[in-house]
Design a protein that fits this description.
By secondary structure, the chain is an alpha+beta fold. The chain is 33% helix and 23% strand. The mean pLDDT is 88.
Amino acid sequence: MAEPEVKICFSRCNDWLGATIRAFTGGRVNHVFLAWTDPEFQITVALGANPNGLTLSPFARFLKPPEQVVSMFKPAASLWPGIRALAPVLDTPYDYGGVIAMSAVELIHRWLKRWMPNPWRSKRMFCSEYVRRVLILSNLDPRGLDAVPPSSTDPARLLRAVEGDERFTLIT
């Protein structure tokens, strides 16, 4: 059986947390996750880090209103190598500390124009860190992020890198 085609989805939510993330990153999105139509479940599923942790959920439950998909991309190659490599961390808690520490990462970048590793050390992940690690493990790390550690990757910066990399095709 052929592997389902995994897409990278960028979304935004207009609640206080989404607005805060966009204010710090200067972007139009505050979340990123993976999605595909699963042949076994016969529904579209979403995989990503969210307040419930790193979860695989029905797309309709994962993307709750008022959250909306802003952009969706098809990668030039399979993301399954990265998804499989990170399967052992499924159902782990969300990295709230890492998200809060991203405020320091963003401020240092704005003031000094350099990237620093996220000061919060955790085995947990937040959304853009998880998707970035999947991309790296699938040999599809977007161009232009070489100096940015995965733990310091925000959704807006990941979106800009994917938009500028010809290996990713915009679907919506």
